[in-house]
Amino acid sequence: MKLVEFFEYFIIDLDGVVYIGSKPISGVSETICRLREMGKRVLFLTNDPRSSSKDYAKKLSDIDIPTAPEEVITSSTAVAYYLKEYHRPYGKTAYVVGTRALKEEIESIGVRIIQGEDAKKADFVIIGGHPEFNYEEMKIATLAVRNGALFIGTNRDPYFPTPEGLIPATGAILASIEVASGKRAITVGKPEPIMFELAKKKLNPKRGEKIAIIGDTLQTDILGGKRARIGTILVLSGSATEKEVIRSKVKPDYIIRELSDILKEQRKHHA
Ligand SMILES: [Mg+2]
Q1: Res 30: pLDDT
Q2: Is 221 left (phi over 0), alpha (psi -120 to 50) or beta?
């Protein structure tokens, strides 16, 4: 059997599965094209809150994977969805630590973004990693959380890989505000259920149709997929290694070398 035959829908992680940095992994464009020809639906999912769905759609289209913004879910999209579904955000205020892309997502659901003195009384504090993070942001976020703001982080990834090595990501910034405020943030990115809930809603599978996540990280993609009760496929083209899988309690349903292997004959991984 080929893995592709077991599922109707694929949720595909970006970094480590489709590309590493700006370099596409071999065969991805042809594989995704083939999946679509077979009538499979594909959704891209990333914990990285720095760019918008539109930016990712363009980045994918540029490497010959034609993609619409609606086919990409980022952890910023997931924060907007979470607020809209569970916290009646319209007309409320937020202090946002993050990029322009994150702020636009929050504004798109009718939340007013505030700064400085006012921000210490914001209804929501929303944290997404960005390279200009500074002490003033840490301070205002901490005070607002201590004043009772709902405290949300896009994700908890501690670092991300770059040519320089592993550099601090949202989780590291979030941790500083958690330490200072004495409160733990709600996070929506993988492995938390919110992002998967949004993905399932978008795919809207009929009874009996199956979804799988394809990811390169055990603690986010695979753990999140398990919690969401969907199929889990680990690729070894990114962060996880075979050794790590042997040691880990989180076991994927299937392991493949890289994305294009879902079109090849497989044997089931026995955990
Ligand atoms: Mg990844």
Answers
A1: 98
A2: alpha
- Is the entire prediction scored with pTM above 0.90? yes
Distance (Å) from CA 114 to ligand 1 centroid:
32
CATH architecture of 3-47+190-263: 3-Layer(aba) Sandwich (3.40)
Give distance in angstroms: CA of 148 to centre of ligand 1.
Answer: 33
Distance 201 CA to ligand 1 centre (A): 22
Name the CATH topology of 88-187.
Answer: Rossmann fold (3.40.50)
CA of 108 relative to ligand 1 center, distance in Å: 27
How far is the centre of ligand 1, averaged over its atoms, from the C-alpha of 13 (Å)? 5
**Same fold for the pair 3-47+190-263 and 88-187:** yes
> Which residues of the chain fall short of a pLDDT of 50?
270-271
What pLDDT is stored for residue 270 in this prediction? 47
Sorted by where each begins, the domain ranges of the chain are: 3-47+190-263, 88-187
Adjacent-strand bridge partners of 256: 235
Distance in Å, CA 155 to ligand 1 centroid: 13
| Alpha-carbon span 268 to 255, nearest angstrom | 8
Q: Which residues surround ligand 1, an ion (CB under 5 A)?
A: 13, 15-16, 216
246 exposure class (CB count in 10 Å sphere: 0-12, 13-18, 19+): exposed
User: What confidence tens digit (pLDDT) does each residue in 117-149 have?
Assistant: 999 999 999 999 999 999 999 999 999 999 999
